[in-house]
Design brief:
192 residues; alpha+beta; Protein Transport Mog1p, Chain A; seven-stranded antiparallel sheet; four-stranded antiparallel sheet; 3 helices; globular
Length: 192
Amino acid sequence: MNKLTVIGVVILLVIIAVFGYIVVNDIQFDHNKNTGNSNTNESVTMLTMSKGGVTVYYPSNWVLSQATSNNSIIAISKESAVDNLEIGQVNINVEKKEFSGDFNSFVNKSYTNIQADKAFNLVSSGEVAINDEKALQYIYTSSSNSGVLKQHKALWFERGNEAYVIMYSAPVDKYEANLPAADYIISHIKIN
């Protein structure tokens, strides 16, 4: 085979592999251009990603990332805060967990259990409305083995016998600065 044929075959295999990854992982992307970021002269591209019955609308300076939870459906992170393992230090993770019984009791039990761990500190909890939908909100801090102190905002939604949690996490020193973007993204997540 000549050199041009080999290059063509390699390109075709790469295209097939990428397409296969997208199909196998049930990932859908839509790209919408939206200008007018009030803080800078840059234009912002808004992206839409759907996976596992969850659709996320987010700015292009956030990227798909790896989640550390087995229950994760989608994880996105601020692009500048993704480490070499593709895990975002400033991230939003959507998880789904099945439960039986009372939703509030299920969620409250989760936080009762983690409060026994001295690495966690519950800051606040209560009921909130997100896009006219009731959610349970928990804000807490946690410290990792590496010594990084993170703050988390977890919003729990009930869908039948499934609990969905949308969690924004960031190191404490980056939490407030990234909170407006996280709140915007969270308000545009749709659980189908």
